[in-house]
Amino acid sequence: MQTLPISRKRYNILTLSLVLAASFALPFFIHLIPPHKGIPMGAYLLPMFYMPLIALFLYGVPMALLVALLAPGLNWMFAGNPDGAFAVVLTLELACFTLATHWLLGKGRGWFAAPLGYLTAKVVSAAVVGIWDIFEVSAVDFYLSSVSNGTWGILLLLMINVLFSSFRNKPADKKSV
After folding, report:
1. Verdict on whether the full-model pTM lies above 0.85
2. Domains annotated on the chain, with CATH
3. Does the keyword Membrane apply (predicted)?
C-alpha cells in the first residue's frame, strides 16, 4: 500500500483547523442550553478553555496559544458570542490561561495546573477590567462572580487536566531481556 506524504505545514494547518472547529462547536452547543438564573451556561461550564488545554497537552504551546488567540474572535464572527468587549477580555484570559498552565505544568504542578491557570488568568483579566473599566462591575466582583459561576467548569478543567496528565506521565513499557 502506498501512502501519500503530508507536509508538516499542511499537517499543522489541518490540525489547527480541526482544533479551532472543536473550539467553536463546543461553546456553540453549550450556549444552546437555556441560561440558568439569566447566566449563560458557558459562564458555568467554561467551554472556551477546554480546547486550549487539550491542545497544550497534545500539540504544545504554539498550537494552544493560536487556539486561545483565535477561538474567541471566530466564535464572535460566526455565532455572535461572546460580544465585542468580552471577546477581547476572553482572548486575554485564554492566552494567560494557556501560558500559566504551561508554566505550572513545567513547575511540577501537574494535576492542578489548569485550575490554577484559570484562576491566574482571571486575576489578570480582573486587573484589566479594573484598570480600563470595560464592564459596569468592579474588578473584585468580576473575579468573584467568574470564579463562583465557573466552579463546575473549573472542576471540568481539573478532570481534563488529570486525564491528560495521567496519560502524559505514564512510564514507557520496559522490555524484559
Report:
1. yes
2. 8-30+41-168 (1.10.1760)
3. yes
